[in-house]
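Example record for the data management plan.
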Amino acid sequence: MLYDEAVKQLTRAIELLEINKTDKKDPGYIEQISKAIMKTEEIITELMVSLDFDQGGEISKNLFSLYTWFNRELMEANISQDAGRMKSIKSMIFDLRNTWSEISQKAAAQPNREAGLNIAG
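Corresponding structural encoding:
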């Protein structure tokens, strides 16, 4: 899932940021941090363009707004090297991932009501 990769990239960025604090602002770390954050932004953008506003209605609109906010926060976090912002976004993406996973599991567990025969008459 895209959410898994977004969480992975943000985890990497946060870890590198923590390492960089002890290594006196090594430019190599800063570039790697920036790449991980930008990869996360690309994933969020991909999630945005995959939204179906006709089928998803209000949920799609709300997700679009949330994803837009994520990307804005990630851009600011990248500029300021703010681990707190990164952790906050990571937590929210992780929660979304879990929510979609639960929905998917519940949908798979429900019998398909459209298929089958009605033998009642």
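Summary line stored alongside the record: The two ends are 44 Å apart (CA to CA).
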